[in-house]
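TASK: fixed-backbone design
INPUT:
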């Protein structure tokens, strides 16, 4: 991410709050936020009317944007040391098969990593037929194991998605089984 993108994200938070508070039936989209371009630029953050309850679980729109900003900040400043610290704090994703690869946006660019190297806060990009390799929060609507998962909804490690989606990893460790 460029510094300009981070500034757009930060300044866009006020615009998102305004839309959330003043237009409850309006879609909140990236293009409503001054043409911000970052990893999930095409993602609909939420349809407030249907997704407010799920979003409230994670601190509302502000909380979700905070998670995205945190991921963007990490992309600007992350080094292997920081990822190792996250691995030490949350544990290795031992439930995942080392041969499984996850598409992750980390360190400001897309990567394909072995599942055990996923850490909390990674932005995971899944396509039709992919199996989730960690517990995640959906940041796009999707279908996991035949059930709808709305923005802000929880998707478990091992579930198979049938619609392209993006997720933020919230759980890794020895208790997860893929």
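OUTPUT:
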């Amino acid at each position: 991410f460029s510094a300009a993108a981070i500034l757009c994200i930060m300044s866009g938070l006020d615009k998102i709050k305004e839309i959330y508070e003043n237009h409850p039936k309006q879609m909140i989209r990236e293009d409503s936020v001054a043409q911000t371009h970052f990893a999930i630029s095409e993602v609909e953050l939420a349809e407030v009317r249907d997704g407010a309850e799920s979003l409230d679980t994670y601190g509302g729109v502000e909380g979700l944007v905070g998670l995205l900003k945190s991921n963007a900040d990490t992309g600007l400043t992350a080094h292997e040391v920081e990822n190792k610290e996250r691995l030490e704090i949350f544990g290795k994703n031992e439930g995942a098969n080392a041969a499984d690869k996850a598409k992750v946006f980390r360190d400001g660019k897309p990567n394909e990593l072995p599942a055990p190297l996923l850490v909390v806060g990674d932005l995971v990009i899944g396509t039709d037929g992919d199996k989730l390799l960690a517990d995640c929060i959906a940041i796009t609507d999707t279908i996991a194991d035949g059930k709808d998962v709305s923005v802000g909804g929880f998707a478990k490690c091992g579930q198979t998605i049938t619609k392209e989606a993006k997720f933020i990893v919230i759980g890794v460790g020895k208790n997860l089984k893929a």
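COMMENT: Residues 3-22 form the longest helix (20 residues).
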